[in-house]
What does this fold into?
Amino acid sequence: MDIQLGWHLLAAMGLIGVGLLHVAWGMGSPWPARTPEALARAVVGGMSGGLPGLGPCLVVAGLLFVGALLVVWAPQGPALVRLGAGLVAAVLLARGIAGFLMATLSPAFRVQPFHRWNMWLYSPLCLLLGTGALLSLR
It folds into this structure.
């Protein structure tokens, strides 16, 4: 497999990085926040239950790792791999767009710390990673 440094590799590295962050959160690390409560407000918003546990975090991490593999393999991969990479791109792009619409659809959402992080980091990152995954299909 001839792999050239490109958008698909950058997207895959981003997906792996976010996946590793979910593993750390699942293991109890509040990084980059100082406390689990501050992390919960920043990454899940007003969810009263706090942070998801190890299981859900590992499921998300696993999906991100599989997504990274599909994106790396897509340029020379069979049709099923390319379909998977297309699905990764679609989900990330939809999440990025939806993140910007959240504040419009729910004004109460704007007062949460999650809103600021979503507008400046989460949604743009999803759009960037989704674009990289989409470009892996060229």
